[in-house]
Amino acid sequence: MDKITVKVGMASCGIAAGSRPVLKELQKTLAGRSEVEIKEVGCLGLCFHEPLVEVDQNGKRTVYGEVTPEIAARIVSEHIDGGKILEDRAILSDETDACENRMVERQVRVVLRNSGLIDPTRIEEYIARQGYEALKKALSSMTPEQVIEEILASGLRGRGGAGFPTGLKWKFARASRGDEKYVVCNADEGDPGAFMDRSVLEGDPHSIIEGMAVCGYAIGSTHGVIYCRAEYPLAIKNLSIALDQAREKNLLGKNIMGMGFEFDIYIKEGAGAFVCGEETALMASIEGRRGMPRPRPPFPANRGVYGKPTNINNVETFANIAWIILNGGKAFAAYGTEKSKGSKVFALAGKISKGGLVEVPMGMPIRDVIFDVGGGIPNGKKFKAVQLGGPSGGCLPESMLDTPVDYESINATGAIMGSGGMVVMDEDTCIVDVAKFFLTFVQNESCGKCPFCRIGTKRMLEILERICSGKGKPEDIGLLEDMAYKVKDGSLCGLGQTAPNPVLTTIKYFRDEYEAHINDKRCPAKVCTALIHYTIDPEKCIGCTKCARQCPVNAISGEIKKLHVIDQDACVRCGQCIKVCPVKAISVE
Amino acid sequence: MKTVPKETPKDVAKALEPVIKRYREKKGNTISLLSDIQTTFGYIPEDAVDHVSRVLNLPSAEIYGVASFYAMFRFKPEGKYVVRLCRGTACHVQGSWLIGEQLQRHFGIPEGGTTEDNMFSLHYVACLGCCSLAPVMMVNGTVHGRLSPELAVEVLESYRSKA
Ligand SMILES: Cc1cc2nc3c(=O)[nH]c(=O)nc-3n(C[C@H](O)[C@H](O)[C@H](O)COP(=O)(O)O)c2cc1C
Ligand code: FES
Q1: Is the separation of the CB atoms in A61 and A88 below 8 Å?
Q2: Residue A12 distance to chain B (closest CA, Å)
Q3: B88 lines ligand 2 (CB under 6 A)
Q4: Of all helices (H) and strands (E), which one includes residue A355?
């Protein structure tokens, strides 16, 4: 009889979209069927189709999207029992021409090689897909120097943002003298709009553990620490399970695989501070102090956690390691551009049709990532900008979309590659409001050590608030630029040095929108509440009272079957009336 | 200025016994000490800080210094359901501020506040990592996605009726 596996996506995104009731339904209908195995897997990256259910029949896969308990029941009766694929529901399939087949064709899977395919809480499944073979290979047939050479040959650069060559970092850490050294995994993922690391932490924790162990061997360290943000409870849970299992199988601990190597890892939970993603702040936080950055040098390789030589890498960086050791640095370097090798995971979010995780070769034009892989802008709206690199990054307009995704090309635009978040914005997004949003964020997250970062961002925020409320002055743009450069120059760590980037890039590429706010007191995207008002068209209003009943602040008055009016002073511009009006009588000016 | 009372209320001292024991045995750090206190009481009470400061000979300024640095620590009791509304970029672009305003209006509390019946506390956080389901909020560890202002209220009201 056929062996059938049914996989349910149970990462945070799946659960948020409602995969728990789907799983329950499948467990109920398939109870007692020994030929069918139900598996809980991580994130496949097709988050916009969650909840996802995959049916794997003799190695032939079909993935269903937007599954409800009812559809789950149909999958059992029609596909599993009836042998017929639900064509209307299949989004990926080895057997039919499903809608997302192309989205997947343009991708490569190095970092995400296991995510969404294996049950992350079962080490056997990781091992079955060549798991821990890289560690074995390194320990049994390579010297630490050879491991570092291989990583150097791969051209891998740090995926946490700055893009420093990983092999070189390891070399420094190896050369640094010390009786005790630390390997730290930066799983703080503070950049809002990015969730690559979460998905790997939740869906393939062993790939990170293996990468860290290889690093420990290469630099001569026995201690590993994973610093994970507290907002990721499922990641912490799956990591803890994975660590226990690895210890049980002697893949961590003393005398690993009987080859005399000792290495262990513990998890350190963050406590909610964006700046703790910065490496020196992160180390202070590991030691239990306020997460304040300090000047470098000394670099972590010389003086890191508890004063010991330390190598810090990002989650995604570590997730590449085992693949590189197994397949060779050359195979990795075959992907990508001259200076940016391999593949990069991007988190697509915002106004994009296919929001989720994609892994593409470096060098693919941003346009292809957004429009081809990501499906473009939904609801027939026009593209306005894409935000790269989070609070340290920038907003790029349509004209820059042919920029290839590699570190140097993106830096040249004024944005940064960052950790890989891409937030897409359409014509309904106000660029000045976005700049204000980011400054509010960095202003809140500034640790306060450097006056330029602490006070400078505050003054810049005040100017942006003024502009958004219609009180901007013509000289404000120049003032913003001037302060931006001062904050950049006067700050110690990456937070302050890059905090003005969202403002600078939006001024550079969207100056007209700033000018509309300042000179014409107009918000072209109709977002800034002080610059818009809602009105009811007397010709169209039928007096159905729906808007008046919906209004949360009772700002709409009118009798049944008579014209309704909005009290502009009471109106909070929440837009709910527009949504309920059956005759589209309400408009924003 | 407030003077530190010499005596810790008995129940607070008792509740802190395991925390202090753990901290003494394993040279821990202030962050884990604070999260242990928060797990014990649901927040960080002043009495508890005074007590551990005295017993462990740690300056309370240092404890407060760390506690106030990290967003996770709270100095007031929380509601039964802690609502963390995402105000990250992806959620912002999808209109999460409108949800924030609606929740504040509906429950009559500001950001960081707790409803009078101690049912809900409202916090804004930056990114819950479910950006493709934006806008999202987390209620005691469960993430709800693809929200609208009305839906968010509906979800929370269903928690209330379950309580
Ligand atoms: C303000 C700030 C926040 C940062 N946040 C993160 C983060 O969340 N995750 C991360 O991996 N790196 C972050 N970094 C970069 C780290 O400082 C460091 O460069 C990185 O962890 C090194 O790993 P990599 O070489 O593998 O990229 C941040 C840097 C700054 C200045
Ligand atoms: S921006 Fe809201 S979940 Fe990421």
Answers
A1: no
A2: 7
A3: yes
A4: none
CB A42 within 8 A of CB A202: yes
Helix (H) or strand (E) holding A478: helix A476-489
B104, closest residue in chain A (CA to CA) = A552
Residue A198, pLDDT > 80, answer yes
Nearest CA to ligand 1 atom 12: A160
Helices and strands: H and E segment counts in chain A? 24, 19
Q: What is the pTM of this model?
A: 0.95
CATH number assigned to the domain with residue range A431-519, chosen from the 4 options 2.60.40.770, 1.20.1440.230, 2.60.40.1080, 1.10.357.10: 1.20.1440.230
Residues in B 73-102 with any Cβ partner in A closer than 8 A: 73, 84, 86-94, 98, 101-102
- Give CATH 3.30.70.20 domain extents, chain A: 533-588
The span from the CA of B77 to the CA of B121, in Å, is 9
B127 Cβ contact list (under 8 Å, min separation 6): A190, A191, A192, A193, A194, A195, A231, B86, B88, B89, B90, B91
How far lies A363's CA from each of A111, A206, A318, in Å? 17, 28, 21
What tokens were used for B127? 């990114």
> What average pLDDT does chain A have?
96
**CATH architecture classification, A533-588:** 2-Layer Sandwich (3.30)
Residues 6+ apart with CB under 8 A from A350: A193, A387, A422, A423, A424, A425, B89, B90, B93, B94, B131, B134
The topology (CATH level 3) of A123-333 is Rossmann fold (3.40.50)
Residue A167 scores a pLDDT above 80: yes
Closest residue, chain A, to B64 (C-alpha):
A290
Phi, psi of B124 (to 5 degrees): -100, 135
CATH architecture of A4-100: 3-Layer(aba) Sandwich (3.40)
Check if A311 has its Cβ closer than 6 Å to any atom of ligand 1.
Answer: no
CATH of region A343-426, choose from 3.30.200.20, 3.40.190.10, 3.40.720.10, 3.10.20.600: 3.10.20.600
Rounded Cα distance, A180 and A133, in Å: 26
- Boundaries of CATH 3.40.30.10 in chain A? 4-100
User: Which residues on neighbouring strands pair with residue A92, listed in sequence order?
Assistant: A63
A270 CA to centre of ligand 1 in angstroms: 14
Asked whether residue A333 carries a pLDDT value surpassing 90, the answer given is: yes
**How far does CA A385 lie from the centroid of its chain?**
18
* pLDDT tens digits along A371-427: 999 999 999 999 999 999 999 999 999 999 999 999 999 999 999 999 999 999 999
User: What pLDDT was estimated at residue A589?
Assistant: 86
What are the pLDDT digits (tens) for B91-145?
999 999 999 999 999 999 999 999 999 999 999 999 999 999 999 999 998 999 9
Say if A284 is an interface residue toward chain B (CB within 8 Å): no
Confidence of residue A117 (pLDDT cuts 50, 70, 90): very high
Q: What is the pLDDT of residue A82?
A: 93
- What is the Cα–Cα distance from A222 to A263, expressed in whole angstroms? 4
Kind of pairing, strands A421-426 and A394-397? Answer: unpaired
Confidence grade of residue B4 (pLDDT, cut at 50, 70, 90): low
DSSP letter for each residue of A107-156: ---STTSSTTTS-TT-HHHHHHTTTTHHHHHHHHH--HHHHHHHHHHHT-
